[in-house]
Amino acid sequence: MDAGPGAATESARYALVAVAGAGLGGFSEPLTYAIPADFTVEITRGTIVWVPLRDQIVTGTVIALDPPVPEFETRPLLGALADFRVASEQLQVAERVARETAVSVGQAAELFFPPAISSRAVELLRPSRQRPDDDLLTRQQAETLRTLETLREATPDQLRASAGKPLTSILPALIKLDAIDRRVIVHPHEPKREQTRQIRLTTDNPPELKAPRQKAVVSFLDIRRRAGIGEGWIDERAALRASGASRDTLNRLIAAGLVEQREVDRAAFEESADQTPTLTAEQASAWRQIERGLEAESPQPLLLRGVTGSGKTELYLRAIAWCLRAGRSAIILAPEIALATQLVRRVSARFPADTTMLHSQLGARERLDAWYSVANGDK
Questions:
Q1: Contact by Cβ (8 Å): 50, 58
Q2: CB pairs under 8 A, 24+ apart, for 44-48?
Q3: What is the maximal distance between C-alpha atoms in the chain?
Q4: Of 124, 223, 247, 344, which one is least surrounded by beta carbons within 10 A?
Q5: pLDDT digits over 361-370, tens only?
Q6: Is the pLDDT of residue 152 over 90?
Q7: What is the distance between the alpha carbons of residues 154 and 160, in angstroms, rounded to a whole number?
Q8: 286 Cβ contact partners less than 8 Å away, ≥ 6 residues apart
Q9: Closest among 77, 78, 161, 163 to 124, alpha carbons compared
């Protein structure tokens, strides 16, 4: 991206950006930035972008395109998120929040951003085409610029490592002199695939083994093979628990060629341990009322009362199934994480590929995967 301050022409395009993190003591009004001609991400209302603000690179949300051509020098967009946009309805909410509270539109819109997007953004530096003469630079500035010219493009950390200096004041000075261009690349979100290891026998006629643990594993796998369940494949941990054997015992069987293993997606091969039970008369009566409520054009809240163990969760599960069949989605709220963990086991056993969980103790990657699965309509 070679557009720099003042590089815009009458044919250039501009974006009005609500900057996140700006507000009290900062910029509460949207700022105008130029859209570089070689920008690879389509910029629309709601696009999340990275922009220069003073000496920093900050995130923001495009709230309008092609405002009046500015009469002042503009700086370019540096990067954009390609796989998500803040929806028009969400921007309207952000604008209302900004009107009614002491925050900017950019701060309010940031509430709708995917978690930890900054961790996916990488700043890259490269020499500007409008390189200043060395006479206009200090010796250290000129050396740093020559190092960057050798690298062609580098992150700030890579440039510091090559220069052998912290460049604390040198880099900001070169950027201010327009000797260095910056851009931001944003790595696409790639969901972490949950893998599980499965095992099965490699022979229909396993030999008689003397070691008790090995014999227990082979016997268990042989029963599964003869039962025709899952073509003989079973989760490794389940097999070890059932046979009382260790991983070391299993490794010996694999080395001997009696057992084979494979890695598979957990969701694709997870076996449901939760079978749909027959409802009791009391449950059936409650379900008829719930179903009528789901079918109503203007649904009303329902209160399901019952002592512990009376079967309330089964009715929740049936309501979820009804919604999924109708092309809807469902959210279950639990009052605390401990209860949420128990509840999600029941729900994911009934709907193994359609369940995700969000709570405050999730790691950053787990939260991001869950967020995208919901935002994309996968779950």
A1: yes
A2: 44/85, 45/88, 45/91, 46/85, 46/86, 46/87, 46/88, 46/90, 46/91, 47/15, 47/80, 47/81, 47/85, 47/86, 48/80, 48/81, 48/84, 48/85, 48/86, 48/113, 48/117
A3: 91
A4: 247
A5: 777 777 888 8
A6: yes
A7: 10
A8: 304, 315
A9: 78
